[in-house]
Amino acid sequence: MALPVPLAFSKFIVGLVALLAGSCVSCFLF
Fold first, then answer.
1. Of 6, 11, 17, 20, which one's alpha carbon is 20 to 30 angstroms from that of 28?
2. pTM, entire model
3. pLDDT digits (tens, 9 = 90+) for 1-30
4. Can you tell me the distance from the alpha carbon of 30 to that of 27, in angstroms, rounded to the nearest whole number?
């Protein structure tokens, strides 16, 4: 029973990854 990934969930994952990436960059710079 494979359902397509909802757009909202996809945006949530993208936002989460972007947040983690921003945190890593901040830690690296500072």
1. 11
2. 0.52
3. 566 767 888 888 888 888 888 777 777 766
4. 5
